[in-house]
Design a protein that fits this description.
486 residues; alpha/beta; Aldehyde Dehydrogenase, Chain A, domain 1; Aldehyde Dehydrogenase, Chain A, domain 2; six-stranded mixed β-sheet; 15 helices; 24 strands; binds nicotinamide-adenine-dinucleotide
């Protein structure tokens, strides 16, 4: 079976290598988190398929690089148009594959996929430039040259969105790509490969190898012909990849996990704070940036908690295809069990469960109730990333204590600050360790801005020029005023 039909879309279950569909001797099973239904058997790639894909990407590199930003841009704009024309199909497909809300795929995520492609194509043509400067009469000319084949490894929580956040700048920079999507969500990448073909992207420029991380992923990151590795996923996997990359000194960009704080100060608008806190359950808590540690000034803790509970009680959990649903299922039984394990251990330790704390038995399947825990300092649940609908709430009594708690994990991905006084918010944001801080808001993201994590939440930044600094070979050509014959 080389095609499966999911939500009305025909999806190829094979790899996409050198513009051709390639099967594997073995397959792995893909099921839907929405209802547990069998979606299909997907080609299970390994060293052989990775070798083929990297060779195809290498062959295509020179031609793609030679097109220049404008030539590439034309094709990438066509690709973005095709994504836009297929938003409904992509949204349906992604929802069945990863269980996230159909309405958010339709109106937020898939339009963003198109924007990821369009933005970086445009950036390479119109914005990627450095002011010329002189050194004792010598001119410094800075350019961003294509670097080669990029290995892109992505997670399952926002499959195509996160993949195109890498594919967009890599292709715009003149690199070619081998993408290894997460094994729990292989479908949107495969459908996207068809769109690259329709857009006229030359064969070999974009390749997809499906399979497990320990097989296809490991073979890809260890490959000697890879110029860049961009990985989004967990800290333990990042450590394995960093070791493999070390042998070839392959440059790395890592977007990793988090345990971000959401700080509610005594001068905060508590309605806004409660609204923002409840948003942290979005995507069933499977969001790297989630402010999962709610830290509240003790003077407003009770009032905040009441508003939070009131707002959280209105969350509708259910089928992600239903437009009125707020939270869908977790991605997979393995992940569901992991989340339940964290909560069960917190219970066994005697941590206070304020809300939820158990599977949603009315819905069955992979639905876990939105949970709020009041843990003691240093508890596992407040230091480890759960990646589910589990928030912790703790109190502080001074700015110093708030900062100590906020900065007190090994992560530094994001932070949310809720305060009514600008000077107060400014003072706090200066001291927070995080790649992105939102003040009185959440998830406002601009592709021009740098994105990444501090500490164990990542290595490097992507977005705007930062993406090109990573994917391209940045070159400085210093030209003397002397020695010219003309
Ligand atoms: P994961 O690390 O288990 O897997 C991510 C990808 O790596 C998958 O495609 C997997 O197949 C692959 N992989 C696994 N082992 C590999 C190996 N040895 N070599 C090469 N590839 C390998 O992560 P996950 O469970 O899919 O995703 C959840 C994690 O991702 C969370 O920690 C979350 O915070 C993080 N995340 C971070 C961001 C960010 O932008 N910072 C965004 C989304 C998710």
């Amino acid at each position: 079976m080389t095609f499966i039909e999911v939500a009305g879309a025909k999806v190829d279950t094979r790899h996409y290598i050198g513009g051709q569909r390639v099967a594997s001797a073995e397959t792995f099973t893909n099921t839907s988190p929405v209802d547990g239904s069998f979606l299909g058997e997907i080609a299970r790639g390994g060293q052989t398929e990775v070798d083929l894909a990297v060779a195809a990407a290498n062959r295509a590199f020179k031609g793609w690089a030679a097109l220049g930003p404008v030539g590439r841009g034309e094709l990438l704009m066509k690709l973005a148009d095709l994504v836009e024309a297929n938003i409904e199909t992509l949204a349906q497909l992604e929802t069945m594959d990863n269980g996230s809300l159909l309405r958010s795929h339709r109106r937020g995520v898939m339009p963003r996929v198109a924007m990821n492609i369009r933005f970086f194509a445009d950036w390479a043509i119109n914005h990627l430039a450095h002011e010329k400067f002189e050194t004792r009469g010598h001119t410094n000319n800075i350019s961003w040259d294509p670097s080669g084949v990029c290995a892109l490894i992505t997670p399952w929580n926002a499959p195509l969105m996160l993949a195109t956040w890498k594919i967009g700048p890599a292709l715009a920079a003149g690199d070619t790509v081998v993408l290894k999507p997460a094994e729990w969500t292989p479908l949107s990448a495969s459908f996207f490969a068809d769109l690259t073909k329709q857009a006229g992207i030359p064969d070999g420029v974009f390749n997809v190898v499906q399979g497990y991380g320990r097989e296809a992923g490991a073979a890809l990151v260890a490959h000697t012909d890879i110029a860049r590795i961009s990985f989004t996923g967990s800290v333990p996997t990042a450590k394995v990849i960093a070791k493999a990359a070390a042998d070839n000194l392959t440059p790395l960009s890592f977007e990793l996990g988090g345990k971000s704080p959401l700080l509610v100060f005594e001068d905060a608008d508590l309605d806004l704070a409660a609204e923002l806190a409840v948003e942290q359950y979005d995507n069933a808590g499977q969001v790297c940036l989630s402010g999962t540690r709610i830290l509240v000034h003790e003077s407003v803790a009770e009032a905040f908690a009441e508003k939070f509970r009131e707002r959280a009680s209105k969350i509708k959990q259910g089928d992600p295809r239903d437009e009125t649903t707020d939270i869908g299922p977790q991605i997979h039984q393995v992940h569901f069990d992991r989340i339940k394990g964290f909560v069960d251990r917190a219970k066994a330790e005697g941590q206070t469960i304020v809300m939820g704390g158990e599977p949603n038995d009315e819905l069955g399947g992979l639905f876990f109730r939105p949970t709020l825990i009041q843990p003691s300092a240093g508890a596992e649940i407040v230091t480890q990333e759960v990646f589910g609908p589990v928030l912790c709430m703790q109190t502080f009594n001074s700015d110093e204590q708030a900062l100590e708690m906020a900065n007190g994990t090994e992560f530094g991905l994001a932070a949310v600050v809720v305060s009514g006084i600008r000077e107060h918010a400014d003072k706090i944001t200066k001291e927070l360790v995080a790649g992105t801080i939102w003040v009185n808001c959440f998830f406002v993201r601009d592709l021009r801005a740098p994105f990444g994590g501090s500490r164990k939440s990542g290595i490097g930044r992507e977005g705007g020029n930062w993406s090109f600094d990573f994917y391209a070979d940045v070159k400085n050509t210093v030209v003397s005023p002397n020695g010219w014959k003309e």
